[in-house]
Amino acid sequence: MNSHRMTVRNQIPFPSKRKSKWSFPLDGLKVGDVLMIESGAEETKKGLAAARGLVGRMKSANPEDAREFGVAKTDDGFGIWRLK
């Protein structure tokens, strides 16, 4: 016997896609520029993951895009460098 209770409901909208709290303005960076993000230890960990994921997705989605970025932890947060 199934211990789950299931119901069918109508006219319930699908939840909207959750927006990331991280928004990195990378389009304005020129070669040699760095976007520095100051944050605490826990926010730095989450921000690094978000930035690395974004940079990786940008490269995968646009392989012909010559821009290259690097992401690294700093003493007071993390940064995103425009390398090429």
Q: What Rg, in angstroms, do the CA atoms define?
A: 19 Å
Provide mean pLDDT, rounded: 88
Residues in helix, %: 25-40%
- Structural class, judged by helices and strands? alpha+beta
Biggest beta sheet summary: 3 strands, antiparallel
Strand order of the largest sheet: 1-3-2
E-strand count:
3
Q: Separation of termini?
A: 61 Å
Q: So what's the overall shape? A: elongated
Write down the secondary-structure element order: EHEE
Strand content: 15-25%
How many separate helices? 1
Low-confidence stretches: none
Structure description:
The chain has 84 residues and is an alpha+beta fold. The chain has a domain at 34-82. It is built from one helix and three strands; from the N terminus they run E-H-E-E. A hairpin with a 2-residue loop joins strand 2 (69-74) and strand 3.
Overview features:
elongated; single chain; 25% helix; alpha+beta; 84 residues
In short:
The chain is an alpha+beta fold and 84 residues long.
Provide the fold topology.
Blueprint: E1 34-38, H1 41-61, E2 69-74, E3 77-82
Antiparallel strand pairs: 1-3, 2-3
